[in-house]
């Protein structure tokens, strides 16, 4: 699993979901969490952290946001050589097959459908960790 | 209302049948799709929305498990569709009576009889809009599942109904989430209206607090619940061909406020009850055509 000192960025335009995700992360001992309310505010944070040599170890983002949607945010993160391998999870109620396909093609690490149970959240993150850090 | 906006599939490899259907229904119906074989019909109906199917009666077509009729009974978007069978009368097809969605009409037949049959099947009597359970069920499932998953509250659905002209126009609640619900076929909106007691119970269960008023955090929660429930219902509706587009919700508060939907149209009301209070989902839709 991601170690407790993992630096995480959580992006969602609804504070309720930000709090639920942060709470779910705390249940797996991860507390170094930065919040953003849109892909447009999250992207500069990702770029700045990478430029400082302190990149985020995990990004969890909603899909449906007013300015920069999660899928576009993902594509921009993947297009930046400094952040292209950052574990990136999309968390969303938009779970249609075409969305999943688009996300996979864009390089998403995993996809969590709302609503989710805490154990499902942890299991999905474990899958992401093993995918990015095999062995 | 008429059959003009209905989508009809005609399954036949006979030129005469195709010409008859085209001549009779072509001036009246905007969407007639022709399939010349069972495989062609499968291809044209997968993930597409239809209102009725017309075919020639051929026992193998209707009996053979490999054929389109049997296949269609397993598809969510097709299994309840009426089939108009041009052919022998029902007495000679008794074994097919069990399929209540089959309607037989003599062949050859005159076009008027066919049109009348389709109107009876597809157009509700004036003043009595019908409830499509295939449309309601995803909303019911989404509301019950999301509220139970996120707040551990069991909601019980009360009988849905279509709002009549003499009923109050807006849904009445203390806090509501509203979201646009538009597709290729209709314009609409969905509102979720909560009594204060219920939404506070939901919020406190979700967040682990003891909030007693409808503050900004509760409003945010209502917006997110609307977002998730709409997203879940939209997913299931789009699987059966509805093409509903994503949207972002807004929230209204005020004791016993009324919702006025921005669209005038048929209003489906789905009430729910729980030990902590009541809520209502309203869906208003107006056809684009």
Kindly describe this structure.
The complex is a heterodimer of chains A (135) and B (289). By secondary structure, chain A is an alpha/beta fold. Chain A has a single domain (8-132), classed as Response regulator (Rossmann fold, 3-Layer(aba) Sandwich). In chain A, 44% of the residues lie in helices and 16% in strands. In chain A, helix 2 packs parallel to helix 3. The termini of chain A are close together. Chain B has 289 residues and is α/β, with parallel strands linked by helices. Chain B folds into 2 domains: 7-122, Response regulator (Rossmann fold, 3-Layer(aba) Sandwich), CATH 3.40.50; 133-287, 3-Layer(aba) Sandwich (Chemotaxis protein chec). Chain B contains 8 helices and 12 strands. In chain B, strands 6, 7, 8, 9, 10, 11 and 12 form a 7-stranded antiparallel sheet that branches. A 5-stranded parallel sheet of chain B has the order 2-1-3-4-5, sandwiched between helices. In chain B, helix 1 packs across helix 5 and helix 6 crosses helix 8. The mean pLDDT of chain B is 83. The A-B interface holds A 13-17, 19-20, 23, 64, 66, 92-96, 114-117 and B 145-146, 149-150, 206-208, 217, 220-221, 223-224, 227-232, 234-235, 238-239, 246, 248.
């Amino acid at each position: 699993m991601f170690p407790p000192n993992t630096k995480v960025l959580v992006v969602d335009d609804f504070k309720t979901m930000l709090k639920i995700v942060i709470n779910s992360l705390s249940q797996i001992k991860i507390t170094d969490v930065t919040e953003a309310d849109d892909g447009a505010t999250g992207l500069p944070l990702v770029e700045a952290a990478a430029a400082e040599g302190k990149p985020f170890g995990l990004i969890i983002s909603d899909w449906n946001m007013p300015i920069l949607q999660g899928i576009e945010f993902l594509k921009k993160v993947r297009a930046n050589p400094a952040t292209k391998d950052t574990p990136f999870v999309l968390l969303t109620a938009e779970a249609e097959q075409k969305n999943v396909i688009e996300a996979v093609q864009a390089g998403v690490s995993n996809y969590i459908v709302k609503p989710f149970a805490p154990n499902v959240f942890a299991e999905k993150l474990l899958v992401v960790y093993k995918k990015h850090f095999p062995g | 209302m008429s059959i003009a906006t209905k989508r009809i599939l005609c399954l036949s490899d006979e030129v005469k049948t195709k010409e008859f259907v085209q001549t009779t229904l072509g001036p009246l119906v905007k969407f007639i799709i022709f399939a010349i074989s069972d495989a062609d019909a499968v291809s044209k109906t997968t993930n597409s929305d239809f209102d009725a199917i017309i075919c020639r009666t051929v026992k193998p077509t209707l009996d053979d498990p490999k054929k389109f009729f049997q296949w269609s009974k397993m598809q969510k978007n097709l299994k309840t569709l009426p089939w108009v069978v041009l052919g022998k009368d029902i007495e000679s097809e008794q074994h097919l009576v069990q399929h209540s969605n089959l309607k037989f009409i003599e062949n050859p037949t005159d076009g008027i009889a066919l049109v009348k049959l389709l109107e009876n099947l597809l157009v509700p009597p004036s003043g009595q809009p019908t409830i499509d359970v295939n449309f309601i069920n995803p909303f019911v499932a989404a509301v019950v599942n999301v509220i139970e998953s996120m707040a551990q509250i069991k909601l019980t659905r009360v009988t849905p109904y279509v709002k009549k002209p003499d009923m109050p126009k807006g849904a009445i609640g203390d806090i509501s989430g509203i979201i646009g619900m538009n597709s290729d076929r209709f314009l609409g909106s969905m509102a979720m209206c909560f009594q204060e007691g219920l939404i506070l119970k939901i919020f406190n269960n979700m967040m682990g607090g003891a909030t007693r008023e409808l503050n900004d955090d509760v409003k945010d929660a209502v917006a997110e619940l609307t977002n998730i429930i709409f997203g879940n219902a939209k997913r299931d509706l789009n699987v059966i061909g509805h093409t509903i587009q994503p949207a972002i919700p807004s929230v209204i508060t005020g004791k016993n406020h009324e919702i006025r939907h921005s669209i005038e149209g048929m209003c489906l009301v789905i009430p729910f009850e729980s030990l902590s209070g009541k809520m209502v989902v309203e869906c208003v839709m107006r056809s684009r055509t």
